[in-house]
Structures are given as C-alpha cells and as structure tokens.
Amino acid sequence: MAPNNFLGEFEQMVLLAILQKGDKAYGVEVRREIEECADRRVTRGAFYTTLDRLEAKGYLRWTERPVEGWRGGLPQRHFEVTAAGREKLEQSRSALQRLWRGLDEQMRPSR
Amino acid sequence: MIRPPRLATTLLRFALPNDTRGRSIAGDLLQEYEEKADSASRVYLWLWYWGQSLALGARYLVFRCREPRAGNDGRRSASTDPTIVVCPLTREEAMENFWTDLRYGVRMLFRTPTLSLVSILTIGLGIGLVTFSFSVVYGSVLRPMPVQDPERLVVIEGVEPATGDWGMYWPMADYVEFRDQTTVFESLAAGYTGTINITGEDGPPERFDGAFLTANGLEILGVPPHLGRTFQPGEDRPEAEGTLVIGYDVWRNRFGGDASVIGRRVRANGEGMTIIGVMPPGFRFPFDQEVWLPYRADWQGVPRGQGNVFQPYGHLREDVTIEAAREEVEMIAGRLAEEFPGTNEGITADVERFQEIHMPAEITAVLWLMLGATFGVMLIACANVANLLLTRAAAREHELGVRIAQGAPASTLVLETLARCAWLSLLGATAGLLVAWLALGALARLGPTDLPRLDQVRVDGGVFLFALGLVILVTVAAGLAPALRALRVDPAQVLMRAGSRSRSGSAFRRPGAQLLLVAQVALSLVLLVASGLLLRSLLHLRATDPGFEPAGAFSFRVSLAGDRYREPTARVELFRLLWERLRALPEVAAGGGTTLLPLTRGYAWTDFVLEGQGAPDGRDRVVADVSTVSEGYFSAMGIPLLAGRRFSAADGLEPLSVIVDRTLAERHWGVDEAVGRWIDNDLIGRATVVGVVDSVLHYGLDAEPRMTVFYPYPARAARSLYGVLRTADGDSDPAALRDAVVAAVRELDPELAVHDTRTLRQRVGASLARQRLLTWLLAAFAVVALTLATIGLYGLLAYAVGTETRSIGIRRTFGAQERDLYRLVLGAAGRIVLWGLALGLAVTFLAGRAIAGLLFRVETGDLVTHVGALLLLASVAAIAALAPARRAARIEPLDALRSE
Q1: Number of C-alpha atoms within 13 angstroms, CB side, residue A68?
Q2: Is the ipTM of this complex over 0.95?
C-alpha cells in the first residue's frame, strides 16, 4: 500500500468504531456507535459497502458468530481491525495531528 | 412478534451476495427490526423495513456486483485472474453465477438509463399492443362462449319460405320430435329467453334476463356450476319442485356471494323456487341471460301446435358436418309437414351455428387478422431493441475483448446479455400490461359499444400468461443477436484497434439500423393512411341517411306460435290489438310492424311483372324485395312518404294494394307516375300501387338500396313481426318502452315472448360495428407504429451523437458551425424519413386495392388522407430528430477531448 494512500473520513470512523466496540463489534452495534458519536445518519448501503472495501484493502477482517433464536437465525459477523488497519489509522492520525499543530488558537475565535 | 414483509426479505436476499456476508447483513437488518418491533407501530415497521430493504438492496445491486473481491470466502471471479484454471462449476456455483448474471443485468440497466428507458418503452408498446389485441380476441372470440366445444353448438331454426318467416322457434311438440328423431346431435335441449322477476327477503324485487330451459339445458353445455348443481332429469316435469340456477354476478350482487344461498327459497315470477346452483363467473347463456329455470310442462303430452315455442340447441356429434345436420333436420321437418299439415305445412328447418349468431364470422376474421398484424408490430419493436443493444454492444466491444482475453467464459457473456434483455422485457411487459389495461379502458368507454361481449374483455389470468410468454419471446428475439455478437468478438483485433475506434460520422451510417428504420417509417405511413381512409369512410357512413330516423325509436320481435295462430285472421287480430294498445300509450307517438327490419338479419324477394314494363306475357320480370308491414310502420320508422298514401286499417286482401319504394318507382315509372299502376306476382296476385316511400338502406349503410315492394300485413300475415315504436318525446330513452311492450304482449297472450329488443339507434350502431372496430384498431396500430419509429429514430440519432462526440468536437475545431451540425443530424434523419415515406407511398399505392373493399365514398388515393399522414409523420420525425441535433450543435471542441 502506498503510504500516501490515506483513509477516507468515513473509513476512519468505521475502523475507530470497531475498535471502540471491541468484543461487541457486530454490524448493528458498530453502525450505531458511529451514528451516536458522529451524530449523523449512516445509511446501511454506505456502511456495508465501506466494510467490504476496507476488508478488500486488508484493514479489517471478520469472523462468523452463529446465532440462535433471533435475527431469523442469520449469522452475525464480528469485526476486527487488522494490524495493517491499525497502522493506517495511526498514519492518518499523525498526519492530521501534524496538520492541526498550533491551529487551536486560530480556530477558536471563529467559532 | 409481527413478521417482516416476506417479499421485501426475498428481494433483499436476492440483491445481497449469497454467502455469510450477505446473510449477516440481512440478519443485521432483521435484528434491528426485532428491536423496533416492540415499540413501533405496525405501519411504521412495515414501511421502515421495506424502505431499508429496497435502499440496501439497490445499493448492493448497483455498486457491488461483479467487483472482484477476496474476502473470507476466498472466491475470485474467473474473469479477473487469467491464471486460474476454469473448473466445471458445482451446482451451487452455477446457481450463484445465475443470480450474479441477473444482478449484473440490473446493474447494466442503471448504467445506461436512456437506452434502458427507450428499450422498455419500445417493448412496452409492443407487448401492450399485442396484449391488448389478444385480450380483445381472447375475450370476444376465444372465450366468449362459456360452453364446451362452442364450435359444435348449433340451433335448429324454423323457416317458412312462403311468408318470408325465418329464424322461428319451434312449438314443444316439434322439439320433442327433433329430440327423438335426430341422430346428428349429442343431445338436444331447448329454451327461450324471457324476463324473470325475483322477489324475496334478500332485497327488493329485481328483474333479470333469464332463460327457460329443458332439464338438460345447462348440463349439455358442459359447464360445471360454481356452486351446487344444475337441473336434473325430471325437473322440467309439471309436478317437479320449482328450481332455479343463478349466474355468478347475480349471486355476488344480490346474494352477497353467500355460499349458503344453495337451498334458499325465493319467488321467481311469483312462484316459490329453490336456488340449486350458481354458475361460474363469465357464464351467460344463451346471450346475456343470467338466471335459468326449467320450463315445467308435460313435454310429451302438450298437444301439437299448443304451448310455448322454443329454440332447440345442442352439440353436433363430432363426426357430423353442419351440412349433414341441415339435411337431416330438413328431412324431419318435411316429414312433420306431411304428417301434420295443419300446423307444420310449408315450414322447413335450418341449422345455424350458435357462434355465428353470437359473433358473425366476418368480425372473428377481422379480429384474428388484427392479432396477426400486432405480432408484426411487436417483432418490429423487438428488432428496434435488438438494434439498440447491438449499437451498445459495438460500443462495448473493447470491454468485451478485454474480458475475453482475461478468460471470461463465453457462456457468461451470452447470459449477461440475455439477462439484460430479460429485465428489459420484464419491465417492458409491466409497462405493456399497463398500456393494454389503459387501452381496454378506453375501448370500453369510446369503442364500439355493440362489440359482442365487450364487457368480458379484460386483462386476466389468461392474458397475463400470454404476456409472460411474450416476455420470453421478446427476450430471445431482441437478445439473441447482441448475445451472439458478444461471442464473435475477437479480443486481439479489438485490443489492437483500441484508441482508433471512431471514424467520422460512422455511427450515423449503419445500413442495418437505417434499413430497419426506413421500413418502420414506411409501415407507419401505410398504417396511418389506412386508418385515415377508414376513419373518413366511417365518418361518411355515420353521416349517411339510412332512409329512416334511428333516433327515438324502439324495436322488438314477437313470434306467434302454436295452434291458436294457425289461421291468419288470428294473427291479424292479435297484432291489431297489440298495435292498438301500444299506440295508446302516452309515451308512444307511432307504432307498427314489419317482417323485415332494416339492418337486421333476414331478407325475402320474389319476381314481379310491372304495368307498362316489358313484354305483356310477363317474360320481363323484375326482382324486388318483399316486405309485409302493418299500418303505422312507416310513421314509426320515420320513412318519408313521397307520393300517394300510407296503409290504413282498411287495407287488406281485397282490394290488394301495395306501396313501392323510390328505387323501384324511379327505375320503372317515376315517383309521380307510380300511384295507380298495377304490379303482379304469380303467388300473391295483382295489386295496385297506392303509395311511394323513400328507399331504406336495408342491407347496411354502405350497401345500395334495393327495389322493395311492401304488402299490407293482413294480406300476408306472417307469424313473426318486428315491432317499431316511436317515442312521443324525442328526448326520452326509447329503451324504456321495453317493459310496456313486454306487459302489453303478456296481457294479450301470456305464452308469447318478446325478444330481440333494441333501439333503432343500437341497430344502426351494430351495423357499423365491424367498420368501427377495424378503424379503431388500425388507428391504434398506426399510433404505436409511429411511436416505435419515432423512438427508433431518436435512439439511432442520440446514440450516434453520443458516440461521435469526439469527431464532432474535431469538426468544431476545424470551424464547423452549429448550422453544419444541425445539417449533419437532421440530414441523417431526413434521408431515413424520405426513403421511408417513398417506400410507404409505394406500398399504399400497390396495396390500396386490398383496403378498397372496406372503404365507403373514399378513394384509396384520397389526397387529404395522404397529405395528412405525410405531414403528421414528417413533423413527428422532425421532433424526434431535433433533440439529438441540438445536442450535437452544443458540442464544444473541448468536449471531444473529455469524451476520451
């Protein structure tokens, strides 16, 4: 992966939400976490296609958790951020942090 | 808990990949549904689930299909990795591929929305038109006779050549003779129609058209009842309990569709009856009747010539021709006439197909012709779509070449194209059913109200299946050529050509597509001209004076049967009383009867010697139609008197007077010279002309009037007469006289039946049914053909402009003006249209003779129609070409670069 290939904003949110939920990082919960923290609506289509894309890039993986008695017996996926994913997140964060350096004072009055 | 809508779940599962990933996504949605289910309302839940499923499913269909993925499933599609050896697919994999192909089809639709929309509209119009014509044919020809083997169902009619009586019913004793002596029928039933008043606790008294039948009358039709049973042997005996079978609509409307209606007691015509059965939907017999009673009588014991009269009917045996049946009934009638001269002398029998009475063969032929023609139009629609897809396939050659080079199996490419076509035709069929449904609605409102059984024409299960069959046909017809073309792509060539694929203006010159369009324009012109000619002749026909006044008059038929009317004086007396009573009604201005009602089945003619004409020994005879009319007939019909007088009550056998029509008078004596002349006939004797009336178009509005001689009724008292009543008040509905007529006839003789009741206007309308139907359908075809041609033209030009953006941009760079680009596009359109018009004109010129027989007072080369059709076509084509032309004119040099 080329180092200049940064994660998109929504991709970051998805990966961060998965990390936040930890053991409980299932589809429904992750999406809800993003909606609550970011205070915005997340359409299912965008959410799942992003998951697929991140998976294809190798930033996350999932394991199947069989369910019984609910969800119509349909399987649940538990998501995990891979090492590559964590690295990518870190990369994005440090880039942003460098860019933000010293801007706090400047941003405040304009709020 | 409330289950989520199953259809939404199915659609979603279809859109999602069929693996753990897809299942888990569906599971997530279900989980949230379950969480919401406790607190949210049912409606909200339903809407929410549907909305989420559709949004999610659409997203997956459009964006996720066919993207190579290497997930936990570890599957890769063969086309992306040429190093993978293609193994035979397992059943599951094949299934998965099938779904993928279907999904891919949907995705393709979204990728090229204009192309898809145009294709769907085209297929929709084609399928809509065929479905529409099929519904009409199916509803009025294939389905109308709700009986088994309708083509073998026939009736026995009585004919009396001497009086010109025809289509007569038979007294009970004669029916019994036919029943026992004929060998050509599977079994013979009989019946007559009448009104049946039903009273009871289920509602107010209601009057229905019904029929009185022999006990086997329903059973031999071979239609099982919807509920209960039909009549059993013996239920037409005098001592039998009163029973009644009702039609489906009566059951639904009066009895609320209550199944417990079987066994219920009602009063029918004042008598207690038990309902024993309900017939299936759509069953009416013999015409529009929907209540049936057994006619309870001692069938064997009724003396000859007494009792009611019936129409015998039954199925011909399978090995018997109608000619053989005619021969046999004629022989039996002859024997009866010999054996019982008192009642049967001079009466012979004829066999007529029930279908022929129902729906004349000529209308049936026209309908079938129409159905065939619509298939042609639909195939053109398919060709249009195939053509559009081919142009698209040409544009995709590069992509296909790459994929083939990467190892995509040929079957996948073919299936993809077919899948896309399947979607197009499925969506097109949906649009088509809508079109057909709307068209049928319009037909029911505006079309010929006298088209037999129009109320039975609708889009139903049979029609739906038919449309489904069309979908398959269209998919193959429109998809095969593009699909096979995908197979012929040579990757090496395609890849080498890459980058140099557009030659200037090439997309405007594609001979196959252009020829197809030329043919369509020609077809549109031919149909426009043909329907224009028919429309003009229909207008002429409607403006034609039939020689009588159709508005404000009611007509009916009464047949005097049985021994009581053996003597002509009895017949004269009964009809005298009947006219007297009817004329006394305040709403009736005039009334009278005739043996031959204009524009109605039946004719009679004989030969005459006219005074002062030809040789005195009578060798030069004049053949003229013969009609018998009662006093008051000419006034009731509104037939003008040109000279002399009308018949009065005093006209009878001695002295014998006649009235002749204008055609006869003008040809032989002159209108003013005719009165006072004599006219001679071998059978009837010499008579004096006392009046001349205007000629009537007896055989149809497009037929020439024939010479006619009218005798006063007492001179030739036929058993059966058509009655005509003219309303006193021009505004009132003449059909309202029906009850009064039935009451008056019943008062004179309760055993007499009134039948064939119609207003004169309805009869005039019915006589135009064929022309009107033909005109309407042809006009509909013309509109569809024109629309298809327009869409095709637009499609070709829009596509050409789209693919030639680069070359057009380059032209701009070299100084081409907007004007030049308009000329480029409009020129391409103009060439096609001009060739089409030329070809179309040639065809109308050559084929004009085919339609000439259907025209009335319009020449096949009618200038107004031709100019009108040409202008219409040219202006529609101009509109179709203008949008692509404007787009071409707006292309900037920079666009050309951007398009690459």
Answers
A1: 0
A2: no
Which tokens in the block code for residue B764?
A: 């005039």
Phi-psi region of B642 (alpha: psi -120 to 50; beta: other; left: phi over 0): alpha
The residues of A whose Cβ lies within 8 A of any Cβ of B are 26-28, 31, 43-46, 48-49, 52, 55-56, 61-62, 64, 67, 70-72, 74-77
Residues of B with CB under 8 A from a CB of A: 20-21, 23-32, 34, 52, 55-56, 58-60, 63-64, 69-72
- Interatomic CA distance for residues B134 and B176, integer angstroms: 42
Instruction: Give the Cα separation of B230 and A7 in Å (integer).
Output: 79
B432 contacts B131 by C-beta, under 8 angstroms? yes
Type of residue found at B890:
R
Task: Give the number of other Cβ atoms within 10 Å of residue B886's Cβ.
Answer: 14
Structure token digits, residue B366: 């026209």
Residues 6+ apart with CB under 8 A from B119: B385, B388, B389, B424, B428, B478
E strand or H helix at B153, and its extent? strand B153-160
Q: Please, how many CA atoms are within 13 Å of residue B167, restricted to the half-sphere of its CB?
A: 20
Look up tokens 């037999």; give the residue. Answer: B452
Average pLDDT over every residue of B153-168: 79
Q: Which 8-state DSSP code applies to residue B596?
A: S
- Report the range of poorest mean pLDDT among B68-72, B249-253, B807-811, B820-824: B68-72
Task: Give CA–CA dist B841/B851, Å, rounded.
Answer: 14
Residue with tokens 């889009």: B459
Give the per-residue pLDDT at B444: 67
The answer, as to whether pTM is greater than 0.90, is no
Tell if the CB–CB gap between A45 and B72 is shorter than 8 Å: no
How, if at all, do strands B265-268 and B271-278 pair? antiparallel
Among B192-206, B281-295, B599-613, B846-860, the range of highest mean pLDDT:
B281-295
pLDDT at B500: 45
Chain segment B727-748, per-residue pLDDT in tens: 987 767 787 888 889 889 888 8
